[in-house]
Design brief:
Elements lengths: L14 E2 L8 H4 L2 E2 L18 H9 L7 H12 L3 E4 L6 H19 L18 E4 L3 H14 L8 E3 L5 H10 L3 E4 L1 H9 L10 E4 L2 H7 L2 H10 L5 E6 L4 H10 L4 E4 L10 E7 L5 H12 L4 E4 L3 H13 L4 E4 L5 H12 L5 E4 L1 H4 L9 E4 L6 H8 L9 E7 L6 H9 L5 E2 L10 E2 L13 H8 L13 E2 L18 H16 L1
Parallel strand pairs: 3-8, 3-9, 4-6, 4-7, 5-6, 7-8, 10-15, 10-16, 11-13, 11-14, 12-13, 14-15
Antiparallel strand pairs: 1-2, 2-9, 17-18
The structure holds adenosine monophosphate (AMP).
């Protein structure tokens, strides 16, 4: 690690809050360090916010701060460094966006009149706030939320993500260079092409640091931390802790407030959880029966592998459910379009793996289905935390099959309660399963040469059949040993689909 920070570090230990002077049950379950003089707030109005910012928060429908906001916001606004352990769904984005907005408002207020501002030569811009997130999607979600918060404020952000036009982003930078929301790769590009200097950065936010490390961005995070002024404020948020994270914070975060919101905080009591026992053989029928019975408004369906995700997607569509699929390798434009369609209510069922869905924020999910129980108990909590957000009621149904059922014990242990088990109605087994019709080629006029070839008797192939109905054997999800070596992206998906069709027809 480079440029060690020699300032005194507090112990990174955190312990359960029991003596913060508050006996309210609402605050009793918060975990935080006992020796850091934390200053929890109760209401947004306790914060030194500009009246316009306070109004904007109210207009978002955020009537009271979430736990992580109660603990972090005042410190974030007062300029403390923060290492926050909080997952998606806790309201952590609100922490750094409210703090960022207030900081930028203060800075704008302090600026000299426009014509006296120092003009910079060359293409260099000097951002004041950098928000870093591991995926493009998360960056876009942060930007979206920022636009809502800053709706009536003179604040704008520049988005820097790969997969979108570099020159357009450079053009945007010219207009709004105070705040940058970025993924590491593209941000580094901008620095290396000499568009940016970090010399005036006042606040550096790194969201989902653990995920950043998983993806392999640790060097980039360290590169940015080393570039920003030592006395600038740093806010780091992570769902989990690790040696690497502690080491990095020790090096670069002077006297951080270490704030932890436990996972039980994001397992709201208003999620109704059920485990449905079924054999792997009957899994698909039972699942179709459940969603037919529940008629969810917006559901996310978790599976453990991409192969199962593709298989289930086909089965749901074949059986009349408007399902979509999100995989890690879906191109960014398609992911964005998909999320827009889900948010607008055009898609009711989203099939996802843990990896593909991480950091993805979809509001108003009414039902979470674990078609496969997760291998890691902690992922169960991440998954079900997708519903019952912001005080709403939510449902979670998990199929407990021969393959993954053993994980239920770990989940019960982690939750410290037993997820109630249920049997499905027998009539679910009478559901008739359908398969998608085999695709016929599109009716595009062929070039003349190929038309001749196509009409020659040799090339006449039998036409595709219509929808097949399987009444007999239950098709099985593809086993995980299906390999598609040498195939990538959409090529891999079509290859898998053809394999699955062969296997199940
Ligand atoms: P996050 O954990 O930042 O992804 O936030 C999860 C969701 O909670 C987002 O949809 C936010 O808009 C919402 N949210 C954040 N803070 C509040 C609040 N104080 N009250 C209600 N909803 C909130």
């Amino acid at each position: 690690m480079s440029s060690p920070n020699t300032s005194q570090q507090p112990s990174p230990n955190t312990e359960k809050l029991s003596s913060n002077g508050s006996n309210s049950p609402e605050e009793d379950h918060l975990l935080l360090s006992s020796n850091q003089n934390l200053k929890p707030i109760k209401h947004f109005s306790d914060l030194p916010l500009s009246p316009k910012l306070l109004t904007a928060i109210g207009e978002l429908g955020w009537h009271s701060p979430t736990d992580v906001q109660k603990l972090c916001l005042l410190h974030a606004i007062e300029g403390d460094n923060i290492l926050g352990f909080a997952q998606t769904g806790t309201g952590k984005t609100g922490v750094f966006l409210i703090a960022t907005s207030q900081l930028l408002l203060n800075l704008n207020h302090d600026l000299p009149p426009k014509d006296q501002r120092k003009k910079t030569n060359g293409p260099k811009y000097y951002p004041k706030v950098i928000i870093l997130a591991p995926t493009r999607e998360l960056v876009m979600q942060i930007q979206e939320e920022f636009e809502k918060i800053a709706n009536n404020l003179p604040l704008k952000a520049t988005l820097m993500i790969g997969g979108l036009d570099f020159d357009k982003q450079a053009e945007q930078l010219k207009q709004h260079h105070q705040l940058i929301v970025a993924t590491p790769g593209r941000l580094k590009d901008f620095i290396q092409k000499d568009y940016l200097s970090f010399d005036q950065v006042k606040m550096f936010v790194c969201d989902e640091v653990d995920r950043m490390f998983d993806i392999g961005f640790i060097r980039e995070v360290e590169y940015f931390l080393a570039k920003i002024p030592q006395n600038s404020q740093k806010l780091m948020f992570s769902a989990t802790s690790s040696d690497t994270l502690e080491e990095l914070c020790f090096e670069y975060l002077s006297q951080p407030k270490i704030i932890r919101v436990t996972s039980d905080d994001i397992t709201p009591e208003n999620i109704i959880q059920r485990a449905i026992m079924c054999s792997s053989e009957n899994k698909l029928r039972v699942f179709l029966g459940l969603i037919q019975q529940h008629q969810p408004t917006r559901a996310i369906i978790f599976v453990n592998t991409k192969v199962t995700a593709i298989w289930l997607h086909e089965k749901l569509r074949a059986n009349g459910f408007d399902a979509s699929l999100i995989t890690g390798d879906l191109p960014q434009r398609k992911r964005t379009a998909l999320i827009r369609r889900i948010k607008s209510g055009q898609i009711r069922y989203l099939i996802a793996t843990d990896v593909a869905s991480r950091g993805l924020h979809i509001p108003q999910i009414t039902h979470v289905y674990n078609f496969d129980l997760p291998n890691e108990a902690a992922n169960y909590i991440h998954r079900i935390g997708r519903t019952a957000r912001a005080g709403a009621k939510g449902y979670s149904y998990s199929l407990v099959c021969d393959e993954y059922g053993a994980h239920l014990d770990d989940i019960n242990k982690l939750l410290n309660v037993k997820v109630p088990c249920e049997w499905y109605p027998e009539e679910f087994l009478d559901i008739k399963l359908k398969d998608l019709p085999i695709k016929t080629p599109a009716h595009k006029p062929l070039p003349e040469k190929r038309q001749k070839k196509a009409t020659s008797p040799k090339s006449q192939k039998p036409k595709a059949t219509t929808t097949q109905t399987i009444n007999g054997n239950q098709p099985k999800p593809p086993s995980s040993n299906v390999t598609g070596q040498g195939k990538t992206g959409s090529g891999l998906i079509s290859w898998l689909k053809s394999k699955i069709r062969k296997k199940t027809s």
